[in-house]
Amino acid sequence: SHIPDEKPCGPGFSPVLVLQNNATTVGRRLRIIPESSLRECNHCAQRKNCIGVEFLNSKCMLYGKYGRRAATFGSIVLSKYCVKKDKVCASTFHFEALEKKLLVGFDLKSVPANKVQECLVVCLNAPDKLGFECESLMFYQTKKKCVLNSEDRFDRPHLFVDGHDEDVIYMDTNCAGSECRAPLTTKYIAEERRVLNNVQGMAIKVDSLEKCQSFCDESLSTSVCFFS
Q: Superfamily assignment of 96-173 in CATH?
C-alpha cells in the first residue's frame, strides 16, 4: 500500500490521522524530531506540507507529498487526510486501516463515496446525521462505495475475514464512543493477575499506569487496559 497525496487542510477542514498497516512506501522526508512516544509525535497534523509520519526508535519522521521512498521496516506509519469537519475526537490516531479485509454481517448504511476522505467524514458524522455510532467502515475503491458498520473487528473477530477479490479498505475508528456523555464518567476497576484470552489489541510502551489509562481514555479501539 502507499500513502495518499493530500492537499493542506483549509478552513472548515480538520486533519485525520490513519494508522496504515503494512505500508510499503512513504513520501519525501521533511524533518526528524526526537519524541519519546507516538502520542507525542503529533507535529504533522498542523503542518501544511506534511502528509504523514513514521515513528521508530523515539524518532518522529515527517514526510511530504513529493517523492517516494520505502517505509522503514518496523516503523509505525500514519497518513494524514483532510476531512470536511470542524472538529474530530482527540486521539493519537483516528482510524486504523487494513487493506483487503471485510467485517461480515454488521453493515448499517451504504453510501456513495468517490474517495476515502468522504467515507471517513460520513463515519465521523454518523451519530449526529444518521442516528447511530459508526464503529468501523469499509471503502470499496473501485465501486466508489462506503459501508458503515455497527461493530468492529475487535468485537467480532470471527467475522473479520479476507477479501481477496475485493478492492476494499477496512478501517476501525477510535472516535466511536470516544467521550462519556453526561451524566456518565469513565471509571477504572483494578483486577490484578487477570487477563482476557482470545482478544485483539495493541501493545504500547508506557512507564506508568496513568499513561496506560490515558491511552484508553482516547479510545484506541479498546475498552480494557492491561499494565505490567
A: Hepatocyte Growth Factor (3.50.4.10)
Q: What is the DSSP string of the chain?
A: -BPPP-PPP-TT-EEEEEEETT--EE--EEEEEE-SSGGG---GGG-TT--EEEEETTEEEEE-SS--EEPPTT-EEEEEEEES-S-----S-SEEEEETEEE-S-EEEEEE-SSHHHHHHHHHHHHHHTSS---EEEEETTTTEEEEESS-TTT-GGGEEE-TT--EEEEEES-TT-S--TT--------TT---SS--------SSHHHHHHHHHTTSS-S-----
C-alpha 54/C-alpha 63 separation (Å) is 8
Name the grid cell of 50. Answer: 506534511
- Between CA 163 and CA 145 the distance in angstroms is 15
Note the pLDDT tens digit of each residue in 177-228: 655 443 444 566 676 666 665 555 556 666 777 767 666 665 444 455 555 5
> 95 - beta bridge partners?
18, 173
* CATH class, 14-93 region: alpha beta
Can the peptide bond before residue 183 be classed as cis, meaning omega within 30 degrees of 0? yes
Q: Locate CATH 3.50.4.10 in the chain.
A: 14-93, 96-173
Grid cell of 28 as nine digits: 519525501
Residue-wise pLDDT tens digits, 55-68: 999 999 999 887 77
**Do 69 and 83 meet the contact criterion of CB atoms below 8 Å apart?**
no
